[in-house]
Amino acid sequence: MLPIYKREMYAYFTSPIGYTFVAVLLAISGALFSVTTVWMKTTSVSAYFTIMLFTYTILIPLLTMKLFSEERKTKTEQILLTSPESIFGIVFAKFSAAFTLYAGTFTISCIINYFTLSSVAGKSPVLSQFIGNTVGIILIGAAFIAVGVFMSSLTENQVIAAVTTFGAILVMLLLWLLTSSINNPVLRNIVKWFSVLDRFAYFTNGIFSVPAIVYFFSLALVFLFLTTRIYEMRRWN
Asked: What proportion of the chain, given as a percentage, has pLDDT over 90?
């Protein structure tokens, strides 16, 4: 698993994708943080983190679109399928590489933003809320990356992989809008249970909800499992 992880990390920085992702994320993060906190002369960071969450509908597909689709296009997936590594190990290694780049860049941007606001405003955001938001978005990002890995495994076209990932993430984020328009309480609770933003609300208040953490981990594992199943079928076919 480690050689594949190293290979994917190396691939990110021998192509424009890794540098583009890091540069765009840091630029968007810095700009949004300035607009929502520094310019507004507030230490409230809820608006910044919520908007950042929606930017990942574009950024995460950029990060995941090539993971498996490129392997299919260049016919190198046969090498993976015949390697001694387990299918889940291959899938998890690729997921881990994308997650490392995502979580590392976002964490760095948050550290920069925190100390920037502290130095400019003269006072810091509530630390528990800041950390809660950061951890919440990292967990949601893990789930979204797993979705992107799954979509990438379905096609050899990187554009299709990116577009379908974008659509899936957007639907997951907008589910909370449906809750107010559903009259049936049972159906409303079901939709609310699947809502990413409803679970993220705990973290915005600095509350580390165990059910929410388990939900995000479970969501990521479900899509990694589905990707594994797809490649297990391809291996035997």
From this structure: 35
